[in-house]
Protein backbone atom coordinates (compact mmCIF):
# COMPACT_ATOMS: atom_id res chain seq x y z
CA UNK A 1 0.00 0.00 0.00
CA UNK A 2 1.30 3.45 -0.87
CA UNK A 3 2.21 5.76 1.98
CA UNK A 4 1.93 9.50 2.29
CA UNK A 5 5.09 11.56 1.96
CA UNK A 6 4.32 13.53 5.12
CA UNK A 7 3.24 10.74 7.45
CA UNK A 8 3.87 7.06 7.96
CA UNK A 9 0.20 6.25 7.74
CA UNK A 10 -1.18 4.36 4.82
CA UNK A 11 -2.92 6.58 2.30
CA UNK A 12 -6.69 6.25 2.05
CA UNK A 13 -8.51 5.53 -1.18
CA UNK A 14 -9.50 9.19 -1.46
CA UNK A 15 -5.86 10.24 -0.99
CA UNK A 16 -4.89 7.92 -3.83
CA UNK A 17 -7.54 9.51 -6.04
CA UNK A 18 -6.24 12.98 -5.10
CA UNK A 19 -2.68 11.95 -6.03
CA UNK A 20 -3.96 10.49 -9.31
CA UNK A 21 -5.88 13.69 -10.05
CA UNK A 22 -2.77 15.81 -9.63
CA UNK A 23 -0.78 13.36 -11.74
CA UNK A 24 -3.28 13.87 -14.56
CA UNK A 25 -3.31 17.66 -14.07
CA UNK A 26 0.48 17.97 -14.16
CA UNK A 27 0.76 15.56 -17.10
CA UNK A 28 -1.82 17.58 -19.03
CA UNK A 29 0.20 20.71 -18.28
CA UNK A 30 3.35 19.10 -19.65
CA UNK A 31 1.50 18.01 -22.81
CA UNK A 32 0.10 21.51 -23.37
CA UNK A 33 3.55 22.99 -22.81
CA UNK A 34 4.99 20.60 -25.38
CA UNK A 35 2.11 21.52 -27.69
CA UNK A 36 3.09 25.20 -27.51
CA UNK A 37 6.65 24.30 -28.50
CA UNK A 38 5.29 22.19 -31.37
CA UNK A 39 3.08 25.08 -32.49
CA UNK A 40 6.13 27.37 -32.72
CA UNK A 41 7.83 24.84 -35.01
CA UNK A 42 4.63 23.75 -36.79
CA UNK A 43 5.94 24.59 -40.29
CA UNK A 44 8.91 22.28 -39.81
CA UNK A 45 6.75 19.55 -38.25
CA UNK A 46 4.28 19.51 -41.14
CA UNK A 47 6.56 20.07 -44.12
CA UNK A 48 9.69 18.22 -43.01
CA UNK A 49 8.25 15.49 -40.78
CA UNK A 50 4.59 14.63 -41.31
CA UNK A 51 4.41 15.04 -45.10
CA UNK A 52 7.92 13.72 -45.73
CA UNK A 53 6.77 10.05 -46.14
CA UNK A 54 4.56 11.16 -49.05
CA UNK A 55 7.65 11.91 -51.13
CA UNK A 56 9.52 9.13 -52.89
CA UNK A 57 12.74 10.87 -51.85
CA UNK A 58 12.03 9.78 -48.27
CA UNK A 59 15.00 7.90 -46.81
CA UNK A 60 13.03 4.70 -46.15
CA UNK A 61 11.84 4.39 -49.76
CA UNK A 62 15.37 4.94 -51.03
CA UNK A 63 16.69 2.28 -48.64
CA UNK A 64 14.13 -0.35 -49.65
CA UNK A 65 14.56 0.54 -53.32
CA UNK A 66 18.29 -0.19 -53.13
CA UNK A 67 17.61 -3.50 -51.36
CA UNK A 68 14.98 -4.47 -53.93
CA UNK A 69 17.34 -3.71 -56.81
CA UNK A 70 20.21 -5.59 -55.20
CA UNK A 71 18.22 -8.76 -54.50
CA UNK A 72 15.85 -8.48 -57.51
CA UNK A 73 12.73 -8.15 -55.32
CA UNK A 74 9.48 -6.20 -55.58
CA UNK A 75 10.46 -2.68 -56.69
CA UNK A 76 7.31 -0.74 -55.82
CA UNK A 77 9.48 1.50 -53.63
CA UNK A 78 11.39 2.64 -56.72
CA UNK A 79 8.40 4.29 -58.42
CA UNK A 80 8.60 8.02 -59.06
CA UNK A 81 5.54 9.12 -57.12
CA UNK A 82 2.86 7.87 -54.73
CA UNK A 83 -0.52 7.82 -56.48
CA UNK A 84 -2.59 9.94 -54.11
CA UNK A 85 -3.35 13.54 -53.20
CA UNK A 86 -4.01 14.99 -49.76
CA UNK A 87 -7.14 17.11 -49.48
CA UNK A 88 -8.92 19.20 -46.85
CA UNK A 89 -12.70 18.73 -47.09
CA UNK A 90 -14.03 20.91 -44.25
CA UNK A 91 -13.80 24.62 -43.46
CA UNK A 92 -12.09 24.11 -40.09
CA UNK A 93 -10.18 21.01 -41.19
CA UNK A 94 -6.70 22.52 -41.30
CA UNK A 95 -7.20 24.39 -38.03
CA UNK A 96 -8.32 21.19 -36.31
CA UNK A 97 -5.38 19.29 -37.78
CA UNK A 98 -2.96 21.99 -36.58
CA UNK A 99 -4.24 21.91 -33.00
CA UNK A 100 -4.42 18.13 -32.60
CA UNK A 101 -1.08 17.58 -34.29
CA UNK A 102 0.56 20.04 -31.89
CA UNK A 103 -1.07 18.26 -28.95
CA UNK A 104 0.16 14.89 -30.23
CA UNK A 105 3.67 16.29 -30.69
CA UNK A 106 3.37 17.81 -27.22
CA UNK A 107 2.61 14.37 -25.81
CA UNK A 108 5.75 12.93 -27.43
CA UNK A 109 7.85 15.80 -26.06
CA UNK A 110 6.33 15.44 -22.58
CA UNK A 111 6.79 11.67 -22.25
CA UNK A 112 9.86 11.84 -19.92
CA UNK A 113 8.00 14.23 -17.59
CA UNK A 114 4.85 12.07 -17.65
CA UNK A 115 6.94 9.00 -16.83
CA UNK A 116 8.46 10.89 -13.90
CA UNK A 117 4.97 11.70 -12.62
CA UNK A 118 3.95 8.04 -12.98
CA UNK A 119 7.07 6.97 -11.08
CA UNK A 120 6.30 9.39 -8.24
CA UNK A 121 2.77 7.96 -8.06
CA UNK A 122 3.79 4.29 -7.87
CA UNK A 123 7.08 4.63 -5.96
CA UNK A 124 5.52 4.70 -2.46
CA UNK A 125 4.30 1.14 -3.05
CA UNK A 126 7.79 -0.09 -3.99
CA UNK A 127 10.59 -1.35 -1.77
CA UNK A 128 13.36 1.04 -0.83
CA UNK A 129 15.91 -0.60 -3.15
CA UNK A 130 13.46 -0.35 -6.06
CA UNK A 131 13.00 3.40 -5.45
CA UNK A 132 16.71 3.88 -6.19
CA UNK A 133 16.06 2.98 -9.83
CA UNK A 134 14.02 6.14 -10.54
CA UNK A 135 16.56 7.72 -12.90
CA UNK A 136 17.18 4.40 -14.63
CA UNK A 137 13.43 3.92 -15.09
CA UNK A 138 12.97 7.40 -16.60
CA UNK A 139 15.96 7.13 -18.94
CA UNK A 140 15.24 3.60 -20.19
CA UNK A 141 11.48 4.15 -20.55
CA UNK A 142 11.97 7.41 -22.43
CA UNK A 143 14.64 5.90 -24.65
CA UNK A 144 12.42 2.92 -25.51
CA UNK A 145 9.49 5.21 -26.29
CA UNK A 146 11.52 7.49 -28.56
CA UNK A 147 13.08 4.46 -30.30
CA UNK A 148 9.57 3.14 -30.89
CA UNK A 149 8.43 6.47 -32.33
CA UNK A 150 11.46 6.55 -34.66
CA UNK A 151 10.82 2.94 -35.71
CA UNK A 152 7.14 3.67 -36.33
CA UNK A 153 7.90 6.82 -38.30
CA UNK A 154 10.80 5.57 -40.43
CA UNK A 155 9.70 1.95 -40.94
CA UNK A 156 6.02 1.19 -40.24
CA UNK A 157 4.56 4.49 -41.47
CA UNK A 158 6.22 4.61 -44.93
CA UNK A 159 5.58 0.90 -45.47
CA UNK A 160 1.90 1.42 -44.62
CA UNK A 161 1.60 4.52 -46.81
CA UNK A 162 3.32 2.81 -49.73
CA UNK A 163 1.13 -0.29 -49.43
CA UNK A 164 -2.18 1.57 -49.04
CA UNK A 165 -1.35 4.14 -51.73
CA UNK A 166 -0.58 1.46 -54.32
CA UNK A 167 -3.52 -0.77 -53.41
CA UNK A 168 -6.39 -0.39 -55.86
CA UNK A 169 -9.63 -2.27 -56.30
CA UNK A 170 -10.15 -0.71 -59.72
CA UNK A 171 -8.33 1.79 -61.93
CA UNK A 172 -11.53 3.84 -61.94
CA UNK A 173 -11.00 4.82 -58.30
CA UNK A 174 -8.62 7.72 -57.65
CA UNK A 175 -7.00 8.19 -54.24
CA UNK A 176 -7.81 11.62 -52.84
CA UNK A 177 -6.97 11.20 -49.18
CA UNK A 178 -8.46 13.42 -46.49
CA UNK A 179 -5.81 15.24 -44.46
CA UNK A 180 -7.19 13.85 -41.18
CA UNK A 181 -6.86 10.30 -42.51
CA UNK A 182 -3.26 10.78 -43.62
CA UNK A 183 -2.04 12.60 -40.51
CA UNK A 184 -4.00 10.19 -38.31
CA UNK A 185 -2.06 7.30 -39.85
CA UNK A 186 1.30 8.99 -39.23
CA UNK A 187 0.47 10.02 -35.65
CA UNK A 188 -1.23 6.80 -34.58
CA UNK A 189 1.46 4.55 -36.04
CA UNK A 190 4.36 6.49 -34.53
CA UNK A 191 2.85 6.87 -31.05
CA UNK A 192 1.52 3.30 -31.02
CA UNK A 193 5.00 1.95 -31.82
CA UNK A 194 6.41 4.11 -29.04
CA UNK A 195 3.98 2.54 -26.60
CA UNK A 196 4.66 -0.98 -27.93
CA UNK A 197 8.37 -0.46 -27.32
CA UNK A 198 7.53 0.00 -23.64
CA UNK A 199 6.82 -3.74 -23.48
CA UNK A 200 9.94 -4.56 -21.38
CA UNK A 201 8.95 -1.92 -18.81
CA UNK A 202 5.37 -3.21 -18.68
CA UNK A 203 6.61 -6.79 -18.28
CA UNK A 204 8.90 -5.65 -15.46
CA UNK A 205 6.02 -4.26 -13.40
CA UNK A 206 3.72 -7.17 -14.26
CA UNK A 207 6.46 -9.53 -13.08
CA UNK A 208 6.89 -7.55 -9.86
CA UNK A 209 3.15 -7.97 -9.24
CA UNK A 210 3.36 -11.73 -10.08
CA UNK A 211 0.93 -11.30 -12.99
CA UNK A 212 3.47 -12.55 -15.56
CA UNK A 213 6.26 -15.11 -15.35
CA UNK A 214 9.07 -16.11 -17.75
CA UNK A 215 7.41 -19.52 -18.03
CA UNK A 216 4.20 -17.88 -19.24
CA UNK A 217 6.05 -15.76 -21.79
CA UNK A 218 8.00 -18.76 -23.09
CA UNK A 219 4.83 -20.84 -23.35
CA UNK A 220 3.11 -18.22 -25.50
CA UNK A 221 6.22 -17.25 -27.48
CA UNK A 222 5.11 -19.17 -30.58
CA UNK A 223 1.78 -17.33 -30.64
CA UNK A 224 3.55 -13.99 -30.24
CA UNK A 225 5.91 -14.82 -33.12
CA UNK A 226 3.02 -15.78 -35.39
CA UNK A 227 1.17 -12.55 -34.52
CA UNK A 228 4.26 -10.42 -35.18
CA UNK A 229 4.88 -12.12 -38.54
CA UNK A 230 1.24 -11.66 -39.57
CA UNK A 231 1.37 -7.94 -38.78
CA UNK A 232 4.67 -7.60 -40.65
CA UNK A 233 3.25 -9.45 -43.66
CA UNK A 234 0.23 -7.13 -43.80
CA UNK A 235 2.12 -3.83 -43.76
CA UNK A 236 5.10 -4.78 -45.96
CA UNK A 237 5.47 -5.64 -49.66
CA UNK A 238 5.36 -9.35 -50.55
CA UNK A 239 9.04 -10.05 -49.96
CA UNK A 240 10.76 -11.75 -47.04
CA UNK A 241 13.44 -9.11 -46.40
CA UNK A 242 10.93 -6.33 -45.67
CA UNK A 243 8.98 -8.58 -43.32
CA UNK A 244 12.15 -9.54 -41.45
CA UNK A 245 13.19 -5.89 -41.06
CA UNK A 246 9.86 -5.07 -39.42
CA UNK A 247 9.71 -8.25 -37.31
CA UNK A 248 13.21 -8.26 -35.81
CA UNK A 249 12.81 -5.32 -33.36
CA UNK A 250 9.48 -6.68 -32.08
CA UNK A 251 10.90 -10.18 -31.62
CA UNK A 252 13.92 -8.74 -29.78
CA UNK A 253 11.62 -6.80 -27.45
CA UNK A 254 9.69 -9.96 -26.64
CA UNK A 255 12.85 -11.92 -25.88
CA UNK A 256 14.21 -9.07 -23.73
CA UNK A 257 10.93 -9.08 -21.82
CA UNK A 258 11.40 -12.77 -21.00
CA UNK A 259 14.84 -12.10 -19.52
CA UNK A 260 13.50 -9.12 -17.57
CA UNK A 261 10.75 -11.27 -16.09
CA UNK A 262 13.34 -13.93 -15.24
CA UNK A 263 15.54 -11.31 -13.56
CA UNK A 264 12.63 -10.05 -11.44
CA UNK A 265 11.63 -13.58 -10.45
CA UNK A 266 15.21 -14.42 -9.46
CA UNK A 267 15.45 -11.26 -7.34
CA UNK A 268 12.20 -12.08 -5.55
CA UNK A 269 13.45 -15.59 -4.79
CA UNK A 270 16.67 -14.18 -3.31
CA UNK A 271 14.66 -11.80 -1.12
CA UNK A 272 12.45 -14.66 0.02
CA UNK A 273 15.47 -16.81 0.91
CA UNK A 274 17.05 -13.92 2.85
CA UNK A 275 13.87 -13.35 4.82
CA UNK A 276 13.60 -17.07 5.53
CA UNK A 277 17.19 -17.23 6.78
CA UNK A 278 16.68 -14.16 8.97
CA UNK A 279 13.56 -15.73 10.47
CA UNK A 280 15.41 -18.96 11.22
CA UNK A 281 18.28 -17.02 12.79
CA UNK A 282 15.94 -15.11 15.06
TrEMBL record:
It comes from Myroides phaeus. Pfam families: TatC. Belongs to the TatC family. GO terms for molecular function: proton motive force dependent protein transmembrane transporter activity. It comes from the Bacteria. This is Sec-independent protein translocase protein TatC. Forms a complex with TatA. Keywords: Cell membrane, Membrane, Protein transport, Translocation, Transmembrane, Transmembrane helix, Transport. HAMAP family: TatC. It is a multi-pass membrane protein. NCBIfam families: tatC. The chain crosses the membrane at residues 20-41, 97-116, 136-156, 189-208, 220-238, 244-264. GO terms for biological process: intracellular protein transmembrane transport; protein transport by the Tat complex. One of its GO terms (cellular component) is TAT protein transport complex. It is found in: Cell membrane; Membrane. Part of the twin-arginine translocation (Tat) system that transports large folded proteins containing a characteristic twin-arginine motif in their signal peptide across membranes.
Amino acid sequence: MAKSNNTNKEMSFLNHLEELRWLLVRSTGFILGGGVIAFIFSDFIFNKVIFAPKSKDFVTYQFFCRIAQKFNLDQSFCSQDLPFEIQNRTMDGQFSVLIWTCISAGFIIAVPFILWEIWKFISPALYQKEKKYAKVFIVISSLLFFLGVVFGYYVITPLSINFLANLEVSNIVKNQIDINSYIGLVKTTSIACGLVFELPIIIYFLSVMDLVSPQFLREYRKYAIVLILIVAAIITPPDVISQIIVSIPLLILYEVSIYISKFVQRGKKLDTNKNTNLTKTE
